[in-house]
Design goal:
Helices cover 39% and strands 13% of the residues. By secondary structure, it is an alpha/beta fold.
C-alpha cells in the first residue's frame, strides 16, 4: 500500500457506528485528566462527561510541568508549552494525584478506568524504580505506563536536563520492568522530525523499531502512529506501518489513532480515508481509538476526535470498527489488569 496520509479537520455532531442503546460506543485509550500546569477536571465530573457514550478510559496526568518564569513571561501565567520559552520539567506527583482521584470513586466507577503511571524521567536509570514504587504504594490502581514521551516536536527541546532518547538504556529498563509486571506501555515517539524533507528516511523509525524488537514481551501502544502536530506522515506512511504490522517480530506492537492533530492527516481527503481504512481493516486487532484530550470540560469537545473520524468509521467493517473502538482495548487492558494485580499480590507486603 502506498500513499501519503494527509488531512483536513472535519467535525460531526453524531457518530455513525451502530451501537446497542445500552452499550457505550467507545473506549478511550488516551486521556489526560490534567494539563501542563497540573490542573484539570474533577474525576467525578469527568464521569458525567463520559456519560453512556464512553465505557472505559486509560487515565493519566501530564508528566511535565510548564514553568512560569517571570523573567520570560512576566505576569502572564502560561498554561501550555507553546505559550512561553520557559522550560518544562518532570512532575512525579502526577501519579499520586491520579491514584487518589481513582481511589475516591466507588468500585463500579473504578472499573471504568485504567490509570497509567507517567510521572518519571525516561532518561533516568532509576525511572523503572519510580514505577515499582508507585505500584507498591498504590496497589490495585494502575494498569499501564504512559503516555510518556521520547521524541516530540517542540516539547523535547524544552524539557530541562538531559534530552530523552531511544538510545538511552533507561528506556530499556522501563520496558523490561513493564514486561515483568504486565503493564501496558503507551509511548509517544515521533517517527520523524518536523517539516522533514520528502523522501528522507524517517529520523527515528529505525531506532524505534530496534527498541521494539528488543522488548518482544512488552505490550506497546505507539501513540498517534508516530505522527504529530507538524510531524507529517512520511511518504507511504500506511506502507511503513504495514511493514511493522505484518512482521512477526512486532506482534506485541499496537497503534493508537488519538489526537485531532493526527486525525486531520488520516481523513484529509477521500483517498487518505480509503488508505487508512484499508490498512486498519487488514489489521483490525492492532489499532485502538483514543481522544488524547486534556482536561475535557464537556462531552462534545471531549468526543470531537471521535466525530472527526466519521468518514473512517463508515469504511471500516462492523467487526473492525468494534475492535478499534472498544474490543481491542478490553482485550489488552483486561489482561494487563489481571497480570499487574498478580504481580502486586506477590510483591506488596
Amino acid at each position: 500500500m502506498t500513499g501519503t496520509v494527509v488531512l483536513v479537520v472535519l467535525s460531526f455532531q453524531t457518530a455513525s457506528p451502530q451501537s446497542k442503546a445500552d452499550e457505550p460506543e467507545i473506549n478511550d485509550v488516551h486521556l489526560h485528566l490534567t494539563n501542563y500546569i497540573q490542573k484539570g477536571t474533577d474525576i467525578h465530573d469527568f464521569l458525567a462527561i463520559m456519560g453512556t457514550k464512553v465505557g472505559r478510559v486509560a487515565l493519566s496526568g501530564i508528566p511535565l510541568q510548564q514553568q512560569w518564569s517571570y523573567h520570560n513571561s512576566g505576569d502572564f501565567a502560561p498554561t501550555y508549552y507553546l505559550q512561553t520559552d520557559a522550560p518544562l520539567y518532570y512532575y512525579s506527583f502526577t501519579d499520586a494525584y491520579i491514584a487518589m482521584a481513582f481511589r475516591s470513586l466507588t468500585p463500579d466507577q473504578q472499573a471504568r478506568f485504567d490509570p497509567m503511571i507517567t510521572g518519571f524521567n525516561p532518561t533516568d536509570m532509576y525511572a523503572a524504580e519510580h514505577i515499582r514504587r508507585v505500584l507498591l504504594t498504590f496497589p490495585g490502581v494502575f494498569t499501564g505506563v504512559g503516555e510518556f514521551t521520547i521524541h516530540k516536536e517542540f516539547v523535547s527541546a524544552k524539557v530541562a536536563g538531559e534530552t530523552a532518547s531511544l538510545l538511552n538504556p533507561a528506556l530499556d529498563r522501563v520496558l523490561d520492568f513493564a514486561a515483568e509486571v504486565g503493564l501496558i506501555v503507551l509511548i509517544h515517539n515521533d517517527m520523524d522530525v518536523p517539516f522533514a524533507k520528502s523522501g528522507d528516511e524517517p529520523a527515528y523509525l529505525s531506532q524505534m523499531k530496534a527498541v521494539l524488537k528488543r522488548h518482544p514481551k512488552t505490550k506497546v501502544i505507539w501513540a498517534h502512529t508516530g505522527l504529530g502536530r507538524v510531524v507529517r506522515p512520511v511518504a507511504h506512511h500506511a506502507a511503513t506501518l504495514e511493514a511493522i504490522l505484518k512482521d512477526p517480530q512486532f506482534g506485541h506492537v499496537y497503534f493508537d489513532i488519538s489526537w485531532d492533530e493526527v486525525a486531520k492527516y488520516l481523513v484529509a481527503t477521500p483517498e487518505t480515508v480509503k488508505i487508512s481504512a484499508a490498512l486498519i481493516n487488514r489489521y483490525p486487532d492492532r489499532f485502538l481509538f483514543g481522544t488524547d484530550e486534556v482536561a475535557p470540560t464537556e462531552q462534545q469537545k471531549y468526543l470531537r476526535v471521535y466525530y472527526q473520524y466519521e468518514p473512517l468509521w463508515k469504511l471500516l467493517s462492523e467487526e473492525t470498527s468494534q475492535k478499534v473502538r472498544k474490543k481491542n482495548y478490553e482485550r489488552l487492558f483486561d489482561d494487563a489488569r489481571r497480570r499487574v494485580r498478580e504481580w502486586e499480590n506477590a510483591h506488596v507486603q
